[in-house]
Amino acid sequence: MDGDEALEIALTDGSVVDGDTRTVEWYQPTGFGIFLESADLEGDGVDELFAVRWAGSSSTVEAWSVAGRNLLWSLTVAARLGPPRLHQLDGDPALELVIGEWEWPDVMIFDTATLELEDEIEGSIWAVRNLVVGNLDRDPQAEILWGAGRTNGGESALFLADADPLAVRWQSRDDAAPYSGPFAGHVTVAFRPEIVAVSRGRPQAGYRGRVQVFDGWTLKETAVSDPALTPTNSGLRAATLVDLDGDGRDEILVAGELRPDIPRPPSDHPPITCRNTTEPVRLGDRVGMRYWLVLRGEREVTYLPEKVGVMC
């Protein structure tokens, strides 16, 4: 983000850390809000930093130049917004800002050159908590994928919309949202796009979240884990996709928090199984107060050097 060869790490407290030296190379004293994203706004090969701040029931989206250490623009919206996503959707040079309302069902698209609202779409379920923008199928147009739903009851689902024209094309079955993700990646087949969603689960059901994998072309569910991945009372709190072994296929890393007042599972904890596989696997070693599980698309049981458990 500053033009040198090293990657930068931006933190919400306002720190920008050099990825090579691990030193803070810039500190912005008012912080960067609660959600961060990077993208090349000016087309010069250097990413800018985008941040979302909440102030009561409103939000401000800010674009920062890390290289210039200055604020480029800010946009205020009368709603709490989720993580920002930047993508070129309409063919002009300017990126579009795609962002969802944290407590309402709307997804909005803004032109980053004019900061005008270009389009918006309303899903049928409230609380857009995360979204992905990219080309998930074989047509030349981008799609917008998001998960919606709250933990306190009501419906929850994944939505897929075409960006041009903006219209919802697909909705998944009701599940135990909110979601970590959804993510677009390659879990079982290196060349074929897939959608991965990790649901946290609802408190009424003991936060029994699970992992779902969908074919990016057909949108059919191809794999789903057992709905009791972690013996916690806080559900699956975070997830990401990463190719751990360099084979071109992503592994799904998920984390669930275990509170001190919740009994630890015994060493003979029942195995956790996944649909479409007959091989049971077990929770791995505890890391601090959290359980870390890696779900492999090919459903092999592997152990990483850190001795975290892997499954599915």
Report on the structure:
There is one protein chain. The model is unreliable at 229-233 and 261-312 (pLDDT under 50). The chain is built from no helices and 24 strands. Strands 20, 21, 22, 23 and 24 form a five-stranded mixed sheet that branches. The radius of gyration is 20 Å and the shape is globular. The protein starts with 7 loop residues before the first strand and ends with a strand. It is mainly β. It has strands at residues 8-10, 15-18, 24-27, 35-39, 48-55, 58-65, 70-77, 85-87, 96-100, 106-111, 117-122, 128-134, 143-149, 156-163, 166-171, 179-185, 194-199, 211-215, 221-224, 236-242, 251-257, 286-287, 290-296, 309-311. A hairpin with a 4-residue loop joins strand 6 (58-65) and strand 7 (70-77).
Describe this structure in a few short sentences.
The chain has 312 residues and is mainly beta. The protein has strands spanning 8-10, 15-18, 24-27, 35-39, 48-55, 58-65, 70-77, 85-87, 96-100, 106-111, 117-122, 128-134, 143-149, 156-163, 166-171, 179-185, 194-199, 211-215, 221-224, 236-242, 251-257, 286-287, 290-296, 309-311.
| Average residue pLDDT | 75
Q: Report Rg.
A: 20 Å
Approximately how much beta-strand content do the residues carry? 35-45%
Helix-strand topology string: EEEEEEEEEEEEEEEEEEEEEEEE
Largest sheet: 5 strands, mixed
What share of the residues lie within helices? under 10%
Distance between the termini: 37 Å
Number of helices: 0
Question: What overall form do the CA principal axes indicate?
Answer: globular
Output the structural class. Answer: mainly beta
Oligomer: single chain
Low-confidence stretches: 229-233, 261-312
How many β-strand runs?
24
